[in-house]
Amino acid sequence: MKIRKDFVTNSSSSAFVIDLGILSDIQVEMIFNHIDVENSINETGFYNGIRYLSDSHVESNKKNASKYGDDLQVDPKYSWNVIRKDGYLFILTVQDNGFSMGAFLTRFVHVLEEDRIRVGYWDKDSEDDELFRKNQDDFSTELFFKTKKGKEVLRKIAK
């Protein structure tokens, strides 16, 4: 068995692209406000008057959070960037370890996997990763579209 003794890094940058034409106004609002939506659903089972989790599911979540010393609230530092551009929503993050956007889109927003383009992770020490690391405090949509993954997104939506 190999045991890793040095520091392990994992670049967790990711992106989704969704055609605005398939989304309702409420779905778009939920995506833009994903942290507040997730926190509301975790605490009450409801968002915007719609039940997403049963009372027993909410209570079970609270019980498990208490048992394991977890917090039901998602920290805003895990927020993803959401940009509306050219008839699409671009949902981007440099670190998705704290909030699973894919699960959120499926469970609560009801956007199926086949209705979104997933742009996966890029390799550590790649040109894209270096660009992110240099600009992580001031990362913009324009900068994303200069990366290889950004160009891949543009090619996919051009089809």
Query: What about the largest sheet?
Result: 4 strands, antiparallel
Tell me the total number of β-strands.
6
Distance between the termini: 46 Å
Alpha-beta classification? alpha+beta
**Average predicted confidence as pLDDT:** 77
Strand line-up in the sheet with most strands: 4-5-1-6
Shape: globular
Total number of helical segments?
7
How much helicity do the residues have? 40-55%
Strand/helix succession: EHHEEHEEHEHHH
Strand content: 15-25%
Radius of gyration: 17 Å
List the helices and strands and how they pair.
Blueprint: E1 14-19, H1 25-32, H2 34-44, E2 46-47, E3 50-51, H3 55-68, E4 81-85, E5 88-93, H4 101-109, E6 117-119, H5 127-135, H6 141-144, H7 148-158
Antiparallel strand pairs: 1-5, 1-6, 2-3, 4-5
Helix pairs in contact: 2-3
What features would you highlight for this structure?
159 residues; alpha+beta; four-stranded antiparallel beta sheet; two-stranded antiparallel sheet; 7 helices; 15% strand; disordered N terminus
Give a quick summary of the entry.
The chain has helices spanning 25-32, 34-44, 55-68, 101-109, 127-135, 141-144, 148-158, and strands spanning 14-19, 46-47, 50-51, 81-85, 88-93, 117-119.
